[in-house]
Write a structure and sequence with these properties.
single chain, two-stranded antiparallel ribbon
Length: 214
């Protein structure tokens, strides 16, 4: 596969971030007096933003906090996560080697629903920031995935038309964003697909290893 640009989702595509997100979530739940949840559940909740992850955890625990309580819990979670953003998170196998090869061929971008500041912090901590021309996270554009705005913003900033940029993600959210923007799209099978079979999400291809991109 050869393209003029590559757009990558972050959580569940480039980096397995669930271990640190799960610890931050359980730290927040413990502070609120609630039981911890298993990391396997957190993996299903990652990808729609911290607030959605919190709401899913409280729903799982049979709780329904109000907006003000959710604001407080969200702030606590983000504070803990920012301080421990790469304690256990690691790039998936072959990611670093693949990015090194692709970055020699074409401009690369990150398109994620993770807040832009946390995305930059994570990429820097794992020495991945050097590969990317632009990082488009929540807050960079007014709308976020599955809206096409983040992908279109990334394409504009790497100077390529959407049809020239391959979107590499792990979930239906990524497929919808890519399709709406006009980008071809592949999914990484072992990411955070919210329990949905990636073969049935409408991607052009599903890859089992990042080696397939080169």
């Amino acid at each position: 596969m050869s393209y003029s640009a590559y757009l990558f989702d972050l959580d569940g595509t480039l980096v397995d971030t669930a271990p640190d997100l799960s610890r931050a979530l359980n730290h927040t739940l413990a502070g609120a007096g609630f039981a911890a949840v298993d990391e396997s559940l957190t993996r299903h909740w990652v990808g729609h933003g911290v607030r959605a992850m919190l709401e899913a955890a409280f729903h799982h625990l049979g709780r329904c906090p109000g907006p003000e309580d959710l604001d407080r819990h969200q702030a606590a979670l983000l504070e803990h996560y920012a301080a421990h953003i790469a304690d256990y998170s690691l790039p998936y196998p072959s990611v670093v080697e693949t990015l090194a090869v692709l970055a020699e061929r074409a401009p690369l971008a990150v398109v994620t629903n993770k807040p832009t500041d946390l995305s930059n912090r994570l990429l820097a901590a794992l020495d991945l920031a050097r590969f990317f021309r632009v990082v488009v996270g929540r807050g960079t554009t007014r709308r976020f995935k599955p809206d096409p705005a983040p992908a279109l913003y990334a394409c504009e900033h790497v100077g390529m038309a959407p049809e020239q940029a391959l979107f590499v993600g792990d979930s239906e959210t990524d497929v919808l964003c890519a399709r709406a923007a006009g980008c071809p799209v592949v999914l990484y099978r072992y990411g955070y697909n919210h329990g949905k079979n990636p073969d049935h999400l409408g991607a052009d291809r599903v890859i089992d290893s990042f080696d397939a991109l080169v």
